[in-house]
Design brief:
Number of helices: 15
Oligomer: single chain
Order of helices and strands: EEHEHHEHEHEHEEEHHHHHHHHEEH
Structural class: alpha/beta
Radius of gyration: 20 Å
Number of strands: 11
Shape: globular
């Protein structure tokens, strides 16, 4: 079992990564002398696939344990689901001496983390990500939240966990669609980290899609270490952490415009293509590099198909993005692998053209 330290000032915590380490959860909780009252928020799909593992843990745990199953989807990541979760905590008598444990993907982690941040003004929290996307990205850094209306993650908090436990055995039961979602975030990191990692992702993408254990572990390690360093320097997203939003301003709007028929990681891949196009369009990225870099996300284009889209509506949704200021959209754009520009303002015409151009790659024929 490998351990990576996330060194956020005042809230350092470890990320444990390994194969078949879910059974170590109790041991880690004991070693950290954490509370013995556990409230598990579990994705229903994960529960059905890993029921025996979860039951073995809950039956052997000596403290108080309750399980709250959650139908994980963007449509359910809302105030109603949060209210049901909180009501369950109250009815079952959980107080401030509680640890909420999220067992699932990014959506489960978001809503369970927000509940932990707000229930009784804050209880302890543990992340057990079971998807590739959550393992490489959303379980690290403390972002929690829910959707409201047509706006994604508009209500939330930065709330760091006590620790994160990544058992790569969970990834072996993922459907292809979920693997693609995780790869979407990995491709984002390929552009952010350095040329060596970019080439690793490009060369080993087929093995990554097959969840080759050695490749997956290596990729997860690299992404977590990079994100951990970024978050440690800028926890509240006032500066450096903004780079992690590469492609996301487009992606969140595309998700909503498509009524969540595509998942977040798939939308990130589309968003990255749009961001690359916009970077070239305004002269940040030269034509040669654009053509070379575009090849990586487009390796996945046949696995992310949409029927139609409304570029004007996508732009209007983007204007509600929480990263904007003074009703102006702020973009993270690429200059080169490992070099990005943040808070870039661009004309509506250029953005709309990049939406049109970017999404056209993914239209079903």
């Amino acid at each position: 079992m490998k351990k990576i330290e996330i060194n956020i000032p005042g809230k350092e915590y470890p990320v444990y990564i390994g194969i078949n380490i879910f059974d170590s959860l109790d041991k880690i909780i004991r070693s950290k002398k954490l509370f013995r009252n556990l409230f598990l928020v579990i994705d229903r799909n994960v529960m059905s696939l890993h029921r025996e593992d979860i039951k073995r843990f809950t039956s052997n745990f000596s403290g108080k344990v309750a399980v709250h199953e959650f139908a994980s989807s963007e449509a359910e990541k809302n105030f109603i689901s949060l209210s049901k979760l909180v009501d369950d905590l109250i009815v079952k008598g959980f107080g401030r001496d509680t640890i909420i444990i999220a067992v699932g993907g990014g959506i489960t982690g978001d809503i369970a983390g927000f509940a932990a941040a707000t229930y009784m003004r804050g209880v302890k929290f543990i992340q057990v990500p079971t998807t590739l996307l959550a393992a490489v990205d959303s379980s690290i850094g403390g972002k929690t939240g829910i959707n409201s209306g047509d706006t994604k993650n508009i209500v939330g908090a930065i709330y760091q966990p006590e620790f994160v436990l990544i058992d790569t055995e969970f990834l072996k039961t993922l459907p292809e669609e979920e693997i693609i979602c995780g790869v979407g975030e990995i491709v984002k990191y390929a552009f952010l980290i350095d040329p060596k990692f970019f080439l690793t992702c490009k060369n080993y993408l087929p093995k990554l899609l097959k969840t080759d254990s050695a490749i997956v572990s290596k990729i997860i390690d690299t992404c977590i270490s990079f994100k951990g360093d970024v978050v440690a320097e800028d926890e509240k997203e006032n500066g450096l952490r903004k780079i992690l939003n590469l492609g996301h301003t487009f992606a969140h709007a595309v998700e909503i415009e498509q009524n969540f028929r595509i998942k977040h990681g798939q939308a990130v891949i589309i968003g990255l293509v749009c961001a690359l196009d916009l970077s070239k369009r305004i002269g940040l990225l030269d034509d040669k590099l654009f053509s070379e870099y575009l090849k990586l996300p487009l390796m996945l284009k046949d696995k992310i198909l949409i029927r139609k889209f409304d570029a004007a509506r996508i732009y209007e949704i983007m204007k509600r993005d929480k990263k904007g200021r003074d009703h102006k959209i702020k973009f993270v754009l690429l200059q080169d692998v490992g070099h990005v520009a943040v808070d870039v303002e661009v004309s509506e015409s250029d953005v709309t053209q990049s939406i049109q151009q970017g999404l056209n790659y993914f239209i079903q024929q």
